[in-house]
Description:
The protein is mainly alpha-helical and about 210 residues long. The chain is built from seven helices and four strands. Helix 4 runs antiparallel to helix 5 (about 80-100).
Amino acid sequence: MLAPLLLAATLTADLPPLPSQVNDLIESNCIRCHSGDKPKGGLDLEVVLEDGADANLEDWRKIQLVLNSGEMPPEGEKAPTPSDRGQAISNLQHWVRQLLEARPEDPGAVGARRLSRSELRETLRDLTGIDIDVNRHLPADPSSDGFDNQGGALSLSPMIVERLFRIAEEVALSAVILPQADEVPSTRYEIDHLTISGQGRVAADHAFFSS
């Protein structure tokens, strides 16, 4: 149980501190609106500055983005000089890269993955022996890095799920042979092979099945 805590403490100690120029810019131009009980945009910069390198990296990316785009500070609020803004952005970008290199790799969330159209067709044919033209039901697979079978691009939208159910119904109807109404199985007994006992029971030594 102590190992994760010791690892976290070691990583925190190795993380570089926030550049003072970035800290000063945020305190001078941003923190008035982004603090208190109802910080604008739901981003409490007092907490972010206090956490420093331990803060959520996504918060620092947001700060980097709005500073770089000139979106913040908004018009009418105290703004840094272009020189100060440019230097702060450069320092922040370099610092965030250092944080990314120092932290363990985070693969992020893994979404639900589906088969591509060609993979689905081959799988159904291998499992059931039935060749279903899945292209009639599914839209073209999105391409990622030149490939159409990348898991990250093959998401499961409600529309795709509905189309997969239609394919499953088509496979089920093709794979299961149901008897026709005029082909209900019947049993036929030959009269010559029937015997009647004294208790009123009928027995047969042969049974013929037909359909």
